Each structure stands twice: as C-alpha cells, then as structure tokens.
Amino acid sequence: MDIKGKAIEMESMIEYQKDSVVSMEVIKKELGTVTLFAFDQGQGLSEHSAPFDAMVQIIDGEAEITLAGEGHTVKKGEMLIMPANIPHALQAVKGPYKMILTMIKSD
After folding, report:
1. How far apart are CA 84 and CA 40, in angstroms?
2. How many folded domains does the chain comprise?
3. 11-57: per-residue pLDDT in tens?
4. What whole-number distance in Å separates Cα of residue 83 and Cα of residue 13?
5. Does the pTM of the predicted model rise above 0.70?
6. What CATH number should be reported for the domain holding residue 85?
7. Domain span at 16
8. How far apart are the first and last CA of the chain?
C-alpha cells in the first residue's frame, strides 16, 4: 500500500488479532523506522533494550511500559521515550492497545 502524500488515520491501518501482537513497518530507512503495533489484551514484548532511543506513541487503549524496572501507564494520546540501552518491556494489561514506535538510529 503506497501511503506517501496521503492523509491516513494511523489507528485504522492495523487491526487487533486474538492472542497476538501484530506489527507493520510504515517507514524503513537506514537511519530509522516507524512501526505500527497492535497488542491484544495479555500480550506484550518481554524485557529487552535497543542501541538507540525509541519513542512510543499510544494511538488506542493504554500500555503498561516498564523502563529500567519502573512501571509507566501510557494512554491514548500520550508518548514515552525509551532511552538507548535501558531495559524496557511493554504489556497490554487492561485491554488491547495500538502504538507507533519511532526509532532513529543516530546519536
């Protein structure tokens, strides 16, 4: 799907799937990516770290994000920047949620 130059409602670009995490790369460049995710309730990404800062924007529902062992509830319309090399995990605790993950591979 070519979306360049078109106004698109991001939330409708990706659908929930039962008991799954769904992802779709919107932009993939050498210097970074923009990826949509849809997490069904109870689904998540286990603790990991990335070599670059990453920004999470919640576009539906709310996420429980653990950053360096500290929990954060991030709701629709909110964002959280996850610093490089800091362990983090994401979980759909109170229901499903959708997010945009933007990672810029630069210092």
Report:
1. 26
2. 1
3. 989 999 999 999 999 999 999 999 999 999 999 999 999 999 999 99
4. 27
5. yes
6. 2.60.120.10
7. 10-104
8. 31
